[in-house]
Structure formats: structure tokens, C-alpha cells
Amino acid sequence: MSKYIRCERFESGDELKLVVISDMHVGSKAFHEDAFLECRQRIIDEDMYVAFAGDALEGKKIDSPHFNPDSLRPRQLDIGKQLEYFCDLWKPIADRTVLFMP
User: Following CA atoms 73, 74, 76, 79 in sequence, which dihedral angle do they give, to the nearest 10 degrees?
Assistant: First the structure.
């Protein structure tokens, strides 16, 4: 989920464009990758900043009672692979990130 917040905050009249993103759950089949990629491109194209408010990965360990391989993407069954993919996705906007809570 992301939310676009428009705020005139500087005396010069310049705007700070901030997108708040959370609950990506990379690794889950429910992760809406296309929506994230569109949002990421908008951040780049429109010179925005981003705050990430948590839940980057699906992140359930295999020995967790909540681990369900049927709910995960086949190539992202473990946390390490989820993290690696998340980093690849985030890299193009890493320099635009002002807050990150994994």
C-alpha cells in the first residue's frame, strides 16, 4: 500500500513530495509487484521521496507454525531470497528514501 502526500512545507514555496509505502510482503503471492513498480517509477520520474513503514518481506521461517509454502512465490520460499529480491527492487529508489523501517 502506498499513499501520496502533497505538502507545501518550505518558505520558498517548493513542495516536498513524499510517498509512504508499507506492507509489501515480498515473497508472498499476494505481493502486488506491478503496482510497486509503477509507484517506484513515479517516485523516480516526479522527483519524489519515499518513507517505508514496514513489512518488507513475508519473512516466515520454515519452522514457524505460520509458514505456508503454498502462499509463497516458488523462488522466494526463504527469507534470504526474499531479502535479496526486495533489495533489487528497492535499489533504484534507495537514494530517495528518507525513512526505512523494515
Answer: 100
How many CB atoms sit inside 10 A of residue 50's CB?
A: 21
Distance (Å, whole) CA 51 – CA 32: 18
Question: Which stretches of the chain score pLDDT less than 70?
Answer: 1-14
Nearest to 81 by CA among 101, 57, 52: 57
pTM for the structure as a whole: 0.79
User: H helices of the chain, where?
Assistant: 33-45, 79-90
Alpha carbon 42 to chain centroid, angstroms = 13
